[in-house]
Design a protein that fits this description.
The chain is an alpha/beta fold and 427 residues long. It has two domains: 330 residues, Thiamin diphosphate (ThDP)-binding fold, Pyr/PP domains (Rossmann fold, 3-Layer(aba) Sandwich), CATH 3.40.50; 37 residues. It contains twelve helices and seven strands. The chain has a five-stranded parallel sheet, with helices on both faces. A two-stranded antiparallel sheet has the order 4-5. Helix 2 packs across helix 8, helix 4 crosses helix 11 and helix 5 runs parallel beside helix 6. The chain is globular. The mean pLDDT is 96. Bound molecules: thiamine diphosphate and magnesium ion. Thiamine diphosphate binds next to strand 2 and strand 4. The site of magnesium ion has 6 residues, from strand 4. Keywords: Oxidoreductase, Thiamine pyrophosphate.
Length: 427
């Protein structure tokens, strides 16, 4: 010990978080606190955040145990809207399933599913205006699908084939879709947060009416970008919605490593004086209502909102991950907030606007739709089949005008390729 005079003090120690369940353990989520549906207050969208700070510690929930919509957050959507939302959620799941399988078949190098999280992006796309700008992470494919992006375009990007508008320059699933207000996905976690704030500030300073929304995972809240984004947003009351998708895991790190043992992720909002909501992320109606509330707040210059979506990542992190190595296989089925698609389906059935036959028919239809799109996309090529972008496009699209040193490198590359005797397939 360095200082004998202090030897009567206990030795310092660190707390190292440990997940509750590891492979082989029986899962019991009884200690996950789930407030009753309808119990959270719905403040006015112009209220000072200090007046409703309790909302970061509870959960906005609309669908109750009998699959009824209850309480002040019920968005009272028409059955038609609910059915369309359900279909988009089912389409996301079918798309994920098919593309996951395509990766296993060697048709692409990489894929990321959003299984169990379909009630986050899809209802949010419904609650936002079509021209509001989204700065997503890699698990919000639901935004693109709900905004009507052709599945073939998404698949071409996943296959990095000759139909890929990004010319194979982005990792599969890192879409960029200006047409659908979907900012280029970056693999560098949370860079989209300050970008969204900057975009929102620009929108306000131009006197525009469009707002921004951004998403990151709970693990990503540990990034410095998360905190600087919140600081800028609160100072200038930027018209932006911050979404933290708490799916309990960040690859193999459980949420405790991002601070979940100490408080909620929604509570991050309090330190910044930002409105904070914690939402049942598997309840499509609650997610819709919270997003609509936050959008109205942003659009009326009342300030940003941080929404924690409490959900569960039912699959591995990506096709490169094997969750059986670090978590109990019982977790996804034991998750107390259920399956988001099943919950919306059960609600529609409970209000006599849906039935099992129609649901089964819908599932068949979305599966066929995905299958047909896949057939179309594969005409443009799959991994390793030569139908990729021409080699001379490799340097395109980075600078508006290619600098001299890149032109030199491009010329050198093409010359070496011509001499190699293995000419690049330009079909
Ligand atoms: C700056 C940075 N650090 C680390 C990584 C590696 N990485 C990619 S995804 C990921 C986990 C992110 O987890 P979370 O934020 O909870 O999002 P989720 O995948 O659960 O949706 C990590 C650590 C990265 N891509 N960028
Ligand atoms: Mg996560």
């Amino acid at each position: 010990m360095a200082d004998a005079a202090r030897s009567n003090l206990p030795p310092l120690a660190l707390h190292v978080p440990e997940p509750k369940f590891r492979p082989g353990d029986t899962v019991d989520f009884a200690d996950v606190e789930i407030p009753a549906a309808g119990s959270a207050r719905r403040p006015d969208t112009t209220e000072d955040p200090r007046g409703f700070s309790e909302l970061v510690y509870t959960m906005v929930r609309v669908l109750d145990e009998d699959n009824r919509a209850v309480g002040p957050w019920d968005p009272k959507l028409s059955p038609d809207t609910l059915r369309r939302m359900l279909r988009h959620m089912a389409l996301v799941r079918a798309f994920d399933e098919r593309m996951f399988r395509a990766q296993r078949q060697g048709k692409t190098s990489f894929y990321m599913k959003s299984l169990g999280e379909e009630a986050v992006a899809v209802p949010q796309a419904y609650a936002l205006d079509a021209d509001d700008m989204c700065f997503p992470s890699y698990r919000q494919q639901g935004l693109l699908i709900a905004r009507g992006c052709p599945l073939v375009d998404m698949m071409n990007q996943i296959y990095s084939n000759r139909g890929d508008k990004l010319q194979g320059k982005q990792l599969p699933i890192m879409y960029s879709e200006k047409r659908f207000g979907f900012f280029s996905i970056s693999g560098n976690l949370t860079t989209q947060y300050p970008q969204a704030v900057g975009w929102a500030m620009a929108s306000a300073s131009k006197g525009d009416t469009r707002i921004a929304a951004t998403w990151c995972g709970e693990g990503s809240t540990a990034e410095g970008d998360f905190h600087s984004a919140l600081t800028f947003a609160t100072v200038y009351r930027a018209p932006v919605i911050f979404n933290v998708v708490n799916n309990q895991w960040a690859i193999s790190s459980f949420s405790g490593f991002a601070g979940a043992e100490a408080t909620t992720f929604a509570a991050r909002a309090i330190g910044y004086g930002i409105a904070g909501l914690r939402v049942d992320g598997n309840d499509a109606l609650a997610v819709y209502a919270a997003t609509q509330w936050a959008a109205e707040r942003a659009r009326t210059n009342a300030g940003p909102t941080l929404i924690e979506h409490f959900t569960y990542r039912a699959e591995g992190h990506s096709t490169s991950d094997d969750p059986t190595q670090y978590r109990s296989a019982g977790e996804p089925t034991a998750w107390p907030l259920g399956d988001p698609i099943r919950r919306l389906k059960d609600h529609l059935i409970a209000i006599c606007e849906w039935d099992e036959e129609r649901h089964a028919a819908m599932d068949r239809e979305v599966a066929d739709e995905v299958k047909a799109a896949q057939k179309e996309a594969e005409k443009n090529g799959i991994l390793g089949h030569g139908l990729h972008q021409p080699l001379d496009t490799l340097f395109d699209g980075v600078f508006e005008e290619m600098p001299w040193h890149l032109r030199e490198q491009q010329a050198q590359m093409l010359a070496e390729e011509a001499e190699s005797g293995r000419p690049w397939d330009r079909k």
